[in-house]
Amino acid sequence: MSKSYEEMSLEELKKIKEEKDKTSYIKTLKDAEAKEKLEAEAQKVKEMEEHDAKVIADFKALNPVVEPTPKIEGKGDKKNAGDNKLQNFYNDYFKRNKTVTSPSDKEVTLSKNAEGAKFQTYQNQTWGEVGFSSLFENTDSDTGCEDDVSDWSPDDVYSKIIWNTAVCKADLFKLAVKGLAINPGDGLGVQIRIYGQFGDPVEKNSCECGSCASIAFSVKSLTLKQYNLEAIVCEKDIWDVGSILMDAYINAMSDSWASWFDWQIYNELETATPGNTETLANALSCDPTMAGSCCSDTALIDLYNSIRSARTTMREGTNPYKPDYIVISPSVGDVFRRIQTPTATFGTNSVHFDENGDLTKIAGLKVVEYCRANACSDASGEVMAILIDSRRAVGAIFGQKPKMYKEFQSNCNSYRVDYWSFFAVGELDTAAITHIVNP
Q1: Which range of residues forms the domain containing residue 397?
Q2: Angle at 92 between CA 86 and CA 94, to 5 degrees
Q3: Which of 298, 259, 307 lies closest to 279, judged by CA?
């Protein structure tokens, strides 16, 4: 049973008073916060009303023949509702452009079309009393990148299958040096620290002191650059062919990034000044026809011998590398598909194909048949294959992987779709790259 005030000690009474004071203070704070919110809401409503009044006044100035009293549809006299230009404009303005939270929490909904409003235009005209000519000029938001969706505009029933244009992709990131990273705020460059080889141990006599040696230090640098893809997708076209239009743009842009990244990596490998160049004994013959035995195909023998020799050269010496990939075009790879009796010439483990007939390994090197690599040719000096040590040959890093932004442009009724990426690519250790070329 609780005590009466008379039975409580002075300390207990003080504690009760403090609790009541705290409760009262909290209530005062909440009341003040609620009042501040109400005042802010009232200010928003006032500003909106002032803005709407200005819109109506501007409309009157451009349409002096119209002099009705504006009113919101559904309220007041309906005698002339919908019969005059200003009333239609006023009603539609609230329907189409406003979502207002009033003190009574009523919302004015969005409207799709503005049938009653027709503004005067002054493009390439003179604004008489003021004297301005060509006051403004409208342009389409997709000028320069217009899309033609006429082939997709429904004339009949379309299948659920949608094809995209075949895109050259090979995921060449697997050839790039691993472990490179850069974060926001780290600047736009990344450096790989390199130290040189230490000298050989030196024999010393009894009580002879050691002689100091040192190693060389250097760096390899890559610099981030900013890249963009942008498209404009018109709302009218989406209404015409459906939301699949936006999906098609986004998928096509994603394919573009993948294809472009592959090309940047290959281009660094192909244009590098390699640490080693292996020249074919004869210009490569690209005739895919099989005739005679395997051993009579000199182009096949020349290519295999050059790959084997280049691999050995990279692995030999005081600074050996470990080549693990060879990059060739499908047409160069097709030279090996001409094999008729490979066992007698190369042994059982030298050339491998998967169940789809794709070349997977040559002389212990993993094969990448890249669609944009140099096609089979007998042109002098043309690079027909590239051997690399993927631990050191080329670097490819992201500061930001492609990130999509989609913004609706109400003044053009279109969507601006942007991808932005921060990316760096570059050759690193060119001694880890070998080119096989025609004589």
Answers
A1: 172-190+220-437
A2: 105
A3: 307
